[in-house]
Amino acid sequence: MSGMASVQQVGAGLADVLGRFRAGRTRAFSFGDGVPEAVMLTYDEFEDLGGEHKFTVGDEVVAPGELAGGLGAIVAAVRRGDGVPVVWGEDGEPEAVVMSTAQYRELRGDDQPPAGVVDDPTVRVYATEPLPGSRPLDLDEWAAGDPFTQELLAEIRAEERAPGDDR
Questions:
Q1: What are 145-160's pLDDT values in tens digits?
Q2: Strand partners, 100
Q3: Whole-angstrom Cα distance, residue 68 to residue 40?
Q4: Of 51, 30, 50, 48, nearest to 120 (Cα)?
Q5: How far apart are CA 27 and CA 160, in angstroms?
Q6: What is the maximum span of the chain, computed from C-alpha positions, in angstroms?
Q7: Residue 70 backbone dihedrals phi, psi, to 5 degrees
């Protein structure tokens, strides 16, 4: 069994999800029945990534109780490929969003995985090794073409120099 929450578990724990989001104790997470099917994220992340401009969302903020009752239908729509992001929160305040994993990838600007590959877009690993031919940054070389940058670099070096250091 995986550590991924099921649709039923998430629906039953929406108050806890909001509490963790409000306290900053959790980030976006995927959930589904056996595989990542949907993503729950804060409304702030959705907004910061331009979600309101990338997706059509309803004018109403869905209450947690209403979302709990309809989460199964929302994920079923996601499975069919016709779901839309759902904004939800308490007292009409947008606090969180439920969307498909494909929509979350689109929101972040990530590539979609190849067909048949199960991928959790909230857990991504990116190659961080230097590319062949990469070399360390040389500040003098970088500043060489700009007198203003050369001047700033000289000032920084002068401030960092210890008294009596004649470098």
A1: 899 999 999 999 998 8
A2: 38
A3: 13
A4: 30
A5: 39
A6: 73
A7: -110, 5
SS3 152: helix
**CB-CB contact of 29 with 122 (8 Å):** yes
Cβ(40)–Cβ(97) under 8 Å? yes
CA dihedral 100, 106, 112, 117 (to 10 degrees): -20
The residue assigned the tokens 């550590």 is 3
Show the tokens assigned to 26: 């959790």
Between 3-7, 87-91, 127-131, 137-141, the lowest mean confidence (pLDDT) is in 127-131
User: Helix, strand or coil for residue 50?
Assistant: coil
Please answer whether residues 105 and 111 qualify as being in contact, where contact means their C-beta atoms are separated by less than 8 angstroms. Answer: yes
Beta strands in the chain (DSSP E): 29-31, 38-42, 86-88, 96-100
41, 97 contact by CB (below 8 A): yes
pLDDT digits over 82-123, tens only?
889 999 999 999 999 999 999 999 999 888 787 877 777 787
Query: What does pTM read for this prediction?
Result: 0.71
